[in-house]
Amino acid sequence: MKEANLKDYAKTYEEFDWSKETATLSGLPDGKGLNIAYEAVDRHALGPLKDVLAIRLVRKDHSYEDLTYGDLKKRTAQFANVLRRLGIAEGEKVFSLLGRVPELYVTALGSLKFKAVYCPLFSVFGPEPIFQRLSKGEGAVLVTNTQFYIKKVRDLLDRLPTLKYILLIDVAEDLDDKALSFSKLMKKVSDEFTIPPTQEEDPALLHFTSGTTGMPKGAIHVHKAVFTHYITGKYVLDFQPGDVFWCTADPGWVTGTSYGIISPLVNGVTSIVDEEEFDAMRWYGILEKEKVNIWYTAPTAIRRLMRMNLVPKEKFDLSALRLVLSVGEPLHAEAVVWGESAYGVPILDNWWQTETGGIMIANFPSLKVKPGSMGKPLPGVEVGIADVEGEELVLLTNPEAQGHLVLKKDFPSIFRGYLHEEERYQKCFMGDWYLSGDLAKKDAEGYFWFVGRADDIIKTSGHMVGPFEVESNLMRHPAVAEAAVIGKPEPSIGELVKAFVVLKEGHAANEDLELELIGYARKVMGPAVAPKEIQFVESLPKTKSGKILRRLLKARELGLPEGDLSTLEKN
Ligand code: ATP
Ligand code: MG
Question: What enzyme class is recorded for this protein (predicted)?
Answer without folding.
Answer: ligase
